[in-house]
Design a protein that fits this description.
single chain, about 850 residues, alpha+beta, paz domain, Rossmann fold, eleven-stranded mixed β-sheet, seven-stranded antiparallel β-sheet, 38 strands
């Protein structure tokens, strides 16, 4: 039986898994006056009315919207009702439509106004009441007042209807993308390079706090540039217009960028607008059968449409159905304005986006207020018709700034960070390790032996200042990336005591990084550290002089990672301020995350990767890991029971000298879960954690605290007093917590800014307590959460969310790299294959992933 205070395990039935009630506002810390980008919403109507619309034959989604918008303007049924439409199947009105108690069918002739010569398309449109035609807004108000307020029971129909009505009046002057409304008129579009540009606008969504609020945030969206396809392609790759590109891979890359976009081209009397599937061969070489004869695409367009091609050697654009080979000469194709780009940005594009999107808090606040003013809610016909009024001022809140923890280092060294940042000058690691056996493999042509030896001297100097013993490097190997794997194996064989291999790579994102981690982590069971060549040589000197050598701060940060990878502990929270949960009991802190494949077509079919980490020492400084492969896009962690069971066993082995070897309490931080998934997560994952405990020992029933961590939201906090503004970003100070007004009416959640924003406006992290056997107070949970943000081993700054969450994210991403690298090196890999690699790899080698 586990020693220490225990509480009985509750039933695991689904009915018992209701979320805990709010425990009350915290009191710790100093008060701070804040404004939040939430605008109070008042509702005059009691009900809205919901109708379903269907069109036969079913048109393309983009045409569906146009047909309905045109139909609603023409049909007399909705005259004077000002209906709103969601762009899919739903229509809402503020009053019940007379004579629409059952399905009604209309014949509608749709005219496409953008065609040069309009053509009429005939459709049959059916409108009918939904199963429950009335949308009860009273349920929404009851939710905010705490009369029916479960996160698993939000009045979603009412929220959806109001969201649509509130933004409907702006749809004719802005581009709507989800909850974002962007426009070329909001600032100027900024060129991101390589054919992309960014448009600015705002995000808006109805959120339910202690009253209904409209959450408004400054935002941006990425679009492909509009214009002639061949001109965009030439500009993207630095070629002259009409000139073939230099490399085949450029055509492949460009095809991926324009796939799924709408392409317009002339078909004689009108402009066709169709989807793009990619590129094919040149117009003067691609052939097809036409009236019994083989003709080229060039010949067809010249004879059929009297179009003389200037650049017949450019590729054709493949459009329309993927079952057909509809090819159009590139030079007559256009990319229409306002088409969102959803693929991954290049490093250059990402850097350019950050420069224009990262705005100080005061600038962002002004943009948000301008967006609310521009929406003209007070005079908007649809808002007035639906009885909606939106306050033009941000809600005012009193938050608190939590006390900063005292950190302890080696010996008697302690410090209190200032504004979330500290310096290790004259401080040594709490538990410093030695690095005696290491070597370098350089796969670039940018550094030589002298550069590496200078780096080792700086590394030794920095390590000794922090208490690490660092010996001389055993070897330096120079090779190409194709020989990397062989050299790593040779090094392991030649030097059996080898602790770490340093691999010098060309840049961040170098494909060799994944090779290094696959071979080191999964096959050689050897710790690795990749370093970009620029961090070996340092910055270029002035006036053509030699590089300055390694930057001391960069070398110090590398030492932080090395000590953790070698099993050391960099710093801890001092016992004098350590939360009760970490001070008096043997507690395990766990974090979990799931990473999903991207939206690109080449990502289809790839699995999702789940990761769980758990602390293995009473001070919550070292973590072990578990990785699992699971179904693509599945958010809940399928094998949570097995993963937690294995982590508990590792904790047991690491703490065999204690009285039980089992943690007396489990505190679990779960990343990346939305409100709509709470019921599934708590039912499956909490039950799985309890089953894992029972597998370890039938009588083992530790109290469990389960907290969801959310970063994907649009809440921002702004200091009202200029004296509270921090840094160039003028953000709120680290430790700012809000647990009133904009939070859930009855459940325990809070917003916390735990870091100092370096650039842009700090995003608070949202924490939602889904379960708590430990009966923590608000102050205990908030303080514990905040202090864990100071234990991330890779830097001397507090981070934006707790270290175990950060670690689980790193581990899940590492699992994704394993999969991609095995797929690249072996041609194909099953989830079972990868799982075998992972299961056989790490053992008790805890912090390899940092």
């Amino acid at each position: 039986m586990v020693s220490g205070r225990q509480e009985p395990q509750r039933s695991t039935s689904v009915k018992s898994l209701s979320l805990p009630n709010r425990l009350g506002e915290g009191t710790s810390g100093r008060p701070i006056k804040l404004s939040a980008n939430h605008f109070a919403v008042k509702l005059a109507n009691q009900s809205l009315y919901h109708y379903d619309i269907d069109i036969k034959p079913e048109p393309a989604p983009t045409l569906f919207r146009k047909i309905v918008f045109q139909f609603l303007k023409k049909v007399t049924l909705f005259r004077d009702f000002l209906p709103v439409y969601d762009g899919k199947k739903n229509i809402y009105t503020a009053r019940q439509v007379e004579g629409l108690n059952s399905p009604r069918v209309f014949n509608h002739e749709f005219e496409e106004p953008e065609k040069e010569k309009s053509r009429e398309l005939k459709f049959q449109i059916t409108i009918q009441p939904t199963g429950t035609v009335e949308v009860d807004l009273e349920a929404l108000l009851a939710y905010c007042e705490g009369r029916n307020s479960s996160s698993t029971n939000q009045p979603l129909r009412a929220i959806q209807a109001l969201d649509i009505a509130i933004k409907y009046g702006a749809l004719d002057r802005k581009v709507s993308i989800g909850h974002n409304l962007v426009s070329k008129q909001v600032g100027r579009p900024v060129d991101l390079g390589q054919g992309l540009e960014v448009w600015f606008g705002h995000f808006q969504s109805l959120r339910l706090g202690w009253k209904p609020f409209l959450n408004v945030d400054a935002t941006q969206a990425i679009f492909m540039k509009s214009g002639k396809v061949h001109e965009i392609m030439a500009g993207m790759y630095g070629a002259r217009t009409g000139e073939p590109l230099r490399f085949d891979w450029q055509y492949t890359e460009f095809a991926k960028k324009i796939t799924a976009l709408k392409i317009s081209y002339s078909r004689g009397s009108y402009m066709a607008s169709v989807g793009c599937n990619g590129l094919k061969g040149p117009a003067n070489k691609e052939t097809f059968d036409c009236d019994g004869a083989k003709v080229t695409v060039q010949q067809y367009f010249e004879s059929k449409y009297n179009i003389s091609l200037q650049y017949p050697n450019l590729p054709c654009v493949w459009v329309g159905s993927r079952e057909k080979k509809n090819l159009v000469p590139m030079e007559i194709c256009f990319i229409a304005e306002g088409q969102e780009y959803r693929r991954k940005l290049s490093d250059i594009q990402t850097s350019n986006l950050i420069k224009v999107a990262a705005t100080p808090a005061d600038v962002r606040k002004r943009k948000i207020l301008d967006a609310v003013k521009d929406m003209k809610f007070a005079t908007d016909a649809h808002c007035r018709n639906f009885g909606i009024s939106v306050d033009s001022n941000m809600v005012q809140i009193t938050g608190r700034v939590l006390p900063t923890p005292k950190l302890v280092y080696g010996g008697t060294g302690t410090m209190v960070p200032k504004l979330g940042v500290w310096n290790m000058r004259n401080m040594k690691f709490f538990d410093a390790r030695s690095m005696d056996f290491f070597g370098f493999i350089n796969i670039t042509r940018m550094v030589n032996d002298n550069d590496i030896n200078l780096f080792v001297r700086e590394l030794s100097k920095s390590g000794q200042e922090m208490g690490m013993g660092i010996g001389n490097n055993l070897f330096i190997k120079h090779c190409g990336d194709r020989q990397l794997e062989v050299e790593m194996r040779n090094a392991k064989k030649t030097f059996p005591k080898l602790q770490i291999i340093f691999v010098i790579i060309s840049r961040k994102g170098d494909p060799a990084y994944e090779t290094v981690k696959r071979v080191g982590d999964l096959e050689l069971l050897l710790t690795t550290q990749c370093i970009q060549f620029k961090n070996i040589k340092g910055k270029p000197g002035y006036s053509g002089q030699a590089p300055t050598g390694p930057d001391p701060s960069t070398v110090a940060n590398i030492c932080l990672k090395l000590n953790a990878k070698l099993g050391g502990v960099n710093n801890l929270i001092d016992r004098s301020v350590r939360p009760r949960m970490l001070l008096n009991e043997q507690v395990i802190i766990m974090g979990a995350d799931v990473t999903h494949p991207g939206a690109d077509r080449q990502e289809l079919g790839k699995p999702s990767i789940a990761a769980v980490v758990g602390s293995v020492d009473p001070r919550a400084s070292q973590y072990c890991t578990e990785i699992r492969i699971q179904a693509s896009k599945q958010e809940f962690i399928e094998d949570m029971e097995g993963m937690v069971y294995n982590i508990l066993r590792k904790f047991n082995r690491a703490n065999y000298s204690t009285s039980t070897g089992k943690p007396q309490r489990i505190i679990f931080f779960r990343d990346g879960v939305s409100e709509g998934q709470f019921a599934k997560i708590i039912t499956h994952e909490l039950t799985a954690i309890r089953k894992a405990c029972a597998r370890l020992s039938p009588e083992y029933r530790p109290p469990i605290t389960f907290v969801v961590v959310q970063k994907r939201h649009h809440t921002r906090l702004f200091p009202e007093n200029p004296a509270d503004e921090i840094g160039r970003g003028k953000n709120v100070p680290p430790g700012t917590v809000v647990d009133r007004t904009i939070v859930h009416p009855t459940e325990s959640d809070f917003f916390l800014v735990s870091h100092q924003g370096i650039q842009g406006t700090s995003r608070p992290t949202h924490y939602h307590l889904l379960w708590d056997d430990s009966k923590m107070s608000s102050d205990e949970l908030q303080t514990l959460t905040y202090y864990l943000c100071y234990l991330f081993t890779r830097c001397t700054r507090s981070v934006s969310y707790p270290a175990p969450c950060y670690y689980s994210h790193l581990v899940a991403f590492r699992g994704r790299q394993y999969y991609d690298e095995l797929l690249r090196s072996k041609g194909r890999v099953s989830s079972a294959d990868l799982q075998k690699y992972i299961d056989a790899s790490r053992g008790l080698d805890f912090m390899f992933f940092v």
